[in-house]
Amino acid sequence: xxxELAEILAPYKGRRGSLxxxxxxVQAKLGYLPEEAVVQIARFLGxxxxxxxxxxxxxxxxxxxxxxxxxxxxxxxTACHVQGGARILAEVERRLGIKEAETSPDMEYSLExxxxxxxxxxxxxxxxxxxxxxxxxxxxxxELFSKTKGEGQG
Amino acid sequence: xxxxxLTIDGREIQARKGATxxxxxxxxxxxxxxxxxxxxxxxxxxxxxxxxxxxxxxxFPPACTTPPTEGMVVRTNTPRLQELRRNIMELILxxxxxxxxxxxxxLNCELQSVARYVGLEQVTLAPIYKNLPIDRAGPFFDRDxxxxxxxxxxxxxxQEVRHVGAISFTYRGGKxxxxxxxxxxxxxxxxxxxxxxxxxxxxxxxxSRADKWQGPPDSEVVTTCPYCxxxxxxxxxxxxxxxxxxxxxPEDIPNHGQxxxxxxxxxxxxxxxxxxxxxxLIRRDGQLQEASWDEALDLVAARLxxxxxxxxxxxxxxxxxxxxxxxxxxxxxxxxxxxxVDHCARLCHAPTVAGLVQSFGSGAMTNSIxxxxxxxxxxxxxxxxxxxxxxxxxxxxxxxxxxxxLIVANPREIDLCRFATVWLQHSPGTDVxxxxxxxRVIVEEGLADSAxxxxxxxxxxxxRQSLQDFDLDFVERITGVxxxxxxxxxxxxxxxxxxxxxYAMGITQHSHGTDNVLATANLAMLTGNVGKPSTGVNPxxxxxxxxxxxxxGALPNVYSGYQAVANPDIREKFExxxxxxxxxxxxxxxxxxxxxxxxxxxxLTLVEMLEAASRKEIxxxxxxxxxxxxxxxxxxHVRETLAQLDFLxxxxxxxxxxxxxxxxxxxxxxxxxKDGTFTNTERRxxxxxxxxxxxxxxxxxxxxxxxxxxxxxxxGFDYSDPFDIMEEIRYITPxxxxxxxxxxxxxxxxxxxxxxxxxxxxxxxxSSFSRGxxxxxxxxxxxxxxxxxEDYPLxxxxxxxxxxxxxxxxxxxxxxxxTLDPEGTLEIGPSDASQLxxxxxxxxxxxxxxxxxxxxxxxxxxxxxxxxxxxxxFAESPANILTNPKxxxxxxxPEYKVCAVRVExxxxx
Lengths: 154, 909
Known about the structure:
The complex is a heterodimer of chains A (154) and B (909). With 154 residues, chain A is an alpha+beta fold. Chain A is built from seven helices and four strands; from the N terminus they run H-H-H-H-E-H-H-E-E-E-H. In chain A, strand 3 and strand 4 form a beta hairpin. In chain A, helix 6 runs parallel beside helix 7. Chain B is α/β, with parallel strands linked by helices. The mean pLDDT of chain B is 92. At the A-B interface, helix 3 and helix 4 of A face strand 6 of B.
């Protein structure tokens, strides 16, 4: 990993202001920001580890634990909420056997919620990886997951 | 004038340009409530409590970020402001549990004071409890973030002032929390446990455990820290005759409210440690047994009388006060009749004294600690400043913050390397080659300050000749530093003015230590970096009063103020002043008939004394507050020597490893139990003030020596207190002439300070060198005395770390410090370790030609290939069993920094 990181970091040498792009690049490569990576970034930039941790815990986009092969994001925005978003979330949790902000032990799924996906007309909504699913029902959740699960395992 | 005039609350006030309205108000003793402001930190503008009304300005600007302008009219306390502040306080308090009565900070809490000032009567917002567990894992302070108001003082203190960054704001919004990287415990991040965060915290979130539930102290005394040579001013809080805690004094030079873990948390526990010696001990039937003061003192006096002067040696102490060192050397010379008085400066900065006297005429730090922060270039060579002089390191980091270039020359990757523009990782013992190489570049590239050399220096031509030996191919080969880096360092040092040099034991503790010192002096003179602010050659002294012990003449060749014993006029001056003569009893008994009554030839140095003792030429030694069994090189030999002495007196606060060999042990009072002065590394004489009565039956060192002297029929030892002694010192020591206790009440004074109206001398050699002209000294490269070979293939270099001090007599008594650093380790680089099959934490045997020991391995990239490192703090793994007693021919310092060792993994562990 050291070599991998060094390659990502090389273009940023001497640019202390580049912390966020660096974190994004590292996360894009590794899927998350492990402790060892943060230690190396801190050394590379001459920035305290605590400061980097402060930045990466501030932004919702950064994660410090690995994400499953499939990322499920359920919307909890106002429109989705009134259309039964909470039920959708509960059903996803039941199906996957994990709670919000958790990853299944087999690393197949990670589950997140967001405040609004920005497609309220489709409420209630959820996203699996990059694909948006609108006007969700618990039945649709059941269908989706048997399918996705199959894909993921295949 | 760089001031503006403004009106605050109807008062006309002059404010510095660049200050803020808040600072202007505080300077004028006008209170404005604030929770996030701190005098040593940049303005933050977070708490919004310092809002003020300014005429012709919209809204309510915070005073802490508003610059004053000419004619500005400010109001700090209007009903409208107070109402706004109450709203802000209410928001803060809704997230702060209102349980003052069970809070350890109660009655000493800034949040409480501000709430009272704004007149908040009730909090109507719904309370939010964070329900966070209290972190009690650290050794010295608890962290209860339920009480935290996120003012950020701790974070900023850790980052801006200490440059550590152990903590930061983490998470966001309602979940925001002060935390470490990945919420690791403080012990597992870079925290140095300096306590600056605790002292900055306005609430009970960060509390020193020692202070908790103690309530207000009975008394508070400002004194000087007893650990290193920085001389931090500490406030000692006393309750019921016990020291509760020690905290740095915010305003005082040299530490400006900062301390290190030892001064902040490592004092009360050793002072009150149950193992403190509380009664004199006399060896009877092979055992040290308690005795009365009369018995012990009579015995010491009677036994000392039976030895001839040349059979006696005295080891004075860099831990004791100036007054005590003065009395000790007077006792050695006037009562025992020997100049063989020395102390551990021999083992740290003897080359500094020998070297800088040749070059400049004075062997002390040329400039002051504060000036380092204003330098444009800092060369830190042979000093791990962050660990050994933590508060001085803050000035180095401040300089870098202000744009200075930092050159670190050190074989090991020390903390300062993080801040360095250039890091010269030279092989141990090759400093002369490195510095001469730099100087050759400076001369060849025309970067030398020829006007300064012409006007202020001498012997330049022969020095320049000696540079011929140091072409960069040779220097690169010897030092292992790539030539372009040497060139870069040379240019950086020569072209960024003012440039200052800091050094410590990495320069001095070599068999050519004096040459190393001369090289630094040459470099400073070559570039005109002497005698001006923020320049100079600055040896960082290790012990709290090693400068003072030297100044007081606890050296074999000089009286106080470096007045030579060999000079008959000076000798006569001291004879008259001391009104002394050897006791007639001794004179008759040994048929002594000196022309003068004080001995005229310089005595033996510390290491020579022990050698003479091993040859039975020295038969009795009087040791005050030193521990040669751990601190001297080749300690196996030292132990054998001490064991065969006819008489050994040890005066100490603990039964040290050395005291275990003594015939009589005299219990001394610690620094907290006596008055006096210490002289710090920058020649600043500072007061030591008595905070508590001596523990048990212990007595101040000066009292004990005087008692022995009087029992030997000596005159001139009737001092009633240290003030009397200081008056005598002033009278007879020109450089201390103007330093009186009365003047020291207003802060320390830097010698030379010859008269009562002299302000002291922060910068030496300003208009001319102490010796007249600065002398360039030609140098040759001499390799270390013992180099690695087949049998002993690694270089061992020794040193100190942050958590312990010297032989650990004090710090090893502090539980928290032992938790942070429990045992001596052998630091070894990953490549050497893997070659030897050594992994982290395994036990290894380290052996040299002189002895062997067992320690745990610490595999670290800080150690370069071929070099291993140990501290000398631990009696269980005493590094000085291994070190080489080979002496520098000029200053007689042993070569602690380089010896050849073999490292083997212990089987079965």
